Amino acid sequence: xxxxxxxALQEALSTAPLRLxxxxxxxCADGAEAFGSLVFGLDAMRKRLPKDVYRxxxxxxxxxxxxxxxxxxxxxxxxxxxxxxxxxxxYTHWFQPMTGxxxxxxxxxxxxxxxxxxxxxxxxxxxxxxxxxxxSFPSGGIRSTxxxxxxxxxDPSVPVFIIRNDNGxxxxxxxxxxxxxxxxxxxxxxxxxxxxxxxxxxxxxxRLFGNTTARRVRASVGPEQEYxxxxxxxxALRPDLLLTGRTxxxxxxxxxxxxxxxxxxxxxxxxxxxxxxxxxxxQKLGIPAKTRHNEVAPGxxxxxxxxxxxxxxxxxxxxxMNMLRHxxxxxxxxxxxxxxxxxxxxxxxxxxxWSLTDxxxxxxxxxxxxxxxxxQFLVFLAAVLRAVHLHGAALRLGAIGAGNDHRxxxxxxxxxxxxxxxxxxxxxxIEGIITGTPAPHTGDSVMEIGVxxxxxxxxxxxxxxxxxxFAFTGNKFEFRAVGSSQSVAPANIALNAAMTxxxxxxxxxxxxxxxxxxxxxxxxxxxxxxxFRQHAPVLFNGNGYAPAWKEEAARRGLPDxxxxxxxxxxxxxxxxxxxxxxxGVLGEREMLARQEILFEHYAKTVRIxxxxxxxxxxxxxxxxxxxAEDRAARLLAxxxxxxxxxxxxxxxFLRLRGHAAGLQGAAAALGEALAACRAAADAHGMARTARxxxxxxMRLCREHADALELLVDDDLWPLPxxxxxxxxx
Length: 729
Ligand code: ADP
Ligand code: MG
Prior knowledge:
13% strand
């Protein structure tokens, strides 16, 4: 084994779990490390703000709206005092540009006075609005470099928080990010627009059912986060892991996930310490980290929080990903959030659990126990089916990415076809409504749909379908196609926008009929069977991995956009843009800019992977192979000198030479593909070339390199192997 590899492996295997400093239990009230102790939340606000200011701010937080400049100074001052007491000396507007990551630029509270002193200053203006030089963030042409200004504005619906390290602390202010023209340059703005639009339309339905008390309908999101951990010292020997977050080559480990011994297995001690560290830090930030376990692939794990309001959940997931990456270092790990870090074992996803709750606390996707509740539930269910059926192409845009392309449709994650799984029982109910015959469990009376006559719906939540991209799980839907490294904002923006359109259509029709004097009951008797019949093609309870489903889905007219480039090409389809326009979530220019950014992001991701692979092949793999060839040639000459029985040595030598030549040829082709990608006229052309030329050339390089890994003597092979990366925790 090569020396570096061997010593990294020794170190990895002899590393003890990190012992965390003692802290009081996070649930203990008033403990310095209590849940949310690093958050300036409602409790802290109540303690520190004048009553009337607190009340006005609390209303904005729960119902939306802008912070009145008149109270901004008071709020800012209280925040500053709190932050300084917590050890902060800097603040930052924390935002989510279209890079897919979070961004921050820190400023000290320090400010000079006219008489030459320094004081700590933080005004309302500094809280509400920031103006970072934004010229280096993707804007898709919305903002040219010469008018580089971007603006950040506080999103009061997410509390400010403190990020600490050993040397200090910084107050983080969650903000929107927009251009001079007011157009969104981030994912938070459209997410909030989508949540407002969804609430407006959902309330129309609730009012029709006689609900006069709900003031708002909120989307709740619980994102389950999968990730891999690899030892940092081993990862340091792999440029592909460091620069792209995935292995670009590597022969399969003789032992992968086939024994099914990792899933839900005992958590390795070092990993456990890491998880506990992450959970503690998250809980201090008010992020309700709840569930931890080993996932299917060796080296793969999951963290699930308790669900929260969608905007908060999205910010918290971004913070969670930051924390996972950041804290891994102190445990000697590299955390891989990539969707497919290793070929041949499962990749990582992010199940986006989504439901709707009114401000009285009722989950609108809960079947409920009264006929009235059930009828309302069926209307929302019909709206979900309509949203997914009519706007699948928009939803598909919530689950794109160069990384996710390796996962979707690869028999470990749902296919790229967006369909809905409801389970046997609920499907039976719907079929009963369509045909006007009772579902099996409803006895022999004919089932009516009206408010007064619908029987209780016993929903058995126990049947699950891992192969469905969009599955009902009792009182929520689980959008399972989202990638592990992605923000959940795009998925939820698309989902909320599609749902807004569907609810609007339904509310329009119901309001029209009831205004014309028809009873709600009678209107539903007509509308629900019609909607369920129209949208039944989106229902699929079968095996989404089966090849037959692709054909069947095509017959049903469901789009199958197999990769990111195809999905993004459809972004500008009139039908797709209409979803976002109608819901008022994105304007036309904002969408076209986003399309451009997505093409660019995809192309750059693949191009960087290609460049990294090419260097690894030329500078690490081929030199090792040449040494191996040399050795094999000498051995062959030696054997021939002493005996005629040289078949094994000759064959070994020839196979080495064959793959070496193959790899050299593939590397040359990869170089050409990369040049073509760089030369493409625009982002769309670059993305297509990346998909059609760079990726296939990379695959060919990998075939030869992986074959060579098994032919080259272990002491010459420079890269930590899959076995070493996957089984050393
Ligand atoms: P599983 O899907 O593995 O059975 P759970 O049902 O417990 O696990 O939940 C998985 C995720 O779904 C968690 O983040 C959980 O908080 C979230 N979740 C549970 N109920 C809801 C809901 N009503 N709306 C949104 N997310 C939810
Ligand atoms: Mg789940």
